Amino acid sequence: MAVSSTDGPLPLGPARQRAVLSALLLAPGQVVGAERLTEAIWPAGPPGNAVASLHSYVSHLRRQLEPDCPPWGRNRILRREPQGYVLAVEADRVDARRFEDLLREGRQLLREGRYPEASRVLRTCLDLWRGAPYAELGDYEPAVCEAARLEELRLATLEALWEAELAWGHDYVTAIAELGALSARFPTRERLGWLLMVALCEVDRQAEAVAVYNRIRRALAQELGVDPGRELRSLFARILRDESVGRACVAAR
User: Fold this and answer.
1) Under CATH, to which class is 171-253 assigned?
2) What is the sign of the dihedral through the CA atoms of 214, 216, 222 and 228?
3) Which residues does UniProt assign to the signal peptide (predicted)?
4) What pLDDT, in 10s, does the model give residues 193-216?
5) φ/ψ of residue 87, rounded to 5
6) Which CATH architecture fits 91-170?
7) CB 136 within 8 A of CB 22
8) Spatial distance between the Cα atoms of 13 and 203, rounded to a whole number of angstroms
9) Where are the domains of the chain?
């Protein structure tokens, strides 16, 4: 996790102090109770001095986030409320929220057939990623669930990006390399395999596309006990019939 100001990155302190900020970022603008923060910082159980430690972490974070605030002044960014603490930050200042906004914009551009623009927005979206989300919170269940949700959206963003790139007809060599690596890492993710097969057919490498299909079919059978879905089966059949499955196939979706 990182926080930047106009003067550059801010030092956020030790791991548990960063965990406080991460827990507050799970619900920006909302009151987060001390009990919930304690659970996030010490999921295995808090120490005897948990309350004092929490107050200390919050105090240090306030000084970093608002260095010009007088000692007894009212903090605007990290505030104490009767029921807990509030991280008062606009949604568009949080990368996770900006990421989702850009993903929606990129998908809309893709639906409208504005492929170069969609590609640009989706790349900007992916550039916001810096490591695993909420890594500071370890086994804290709400953070684990949110991190998994964001990771799923990152994969969906990659799929949308390469769909735009293929529909645009842009750099098949790079597309095949990137999609090949992603498909190998996520062998049961059919959409990645579908896009890789289309890219291979676009440069007349149909035999390799057939091999990709067979690899996905085996992975699905072994790991999930299912057959490939309708879209992947349809693409495979078109390849066997030697029908065109290139850019027009992607753009028609």
Assistant:
1) mainly alpha
2) negative
3) none
4) 999 999 999 999 999 999 999 999
5) -95, 100
6) Alpha Horseshoe (1.25)
7) yes
8) 51
9) 4-89, 91-170, 171-253
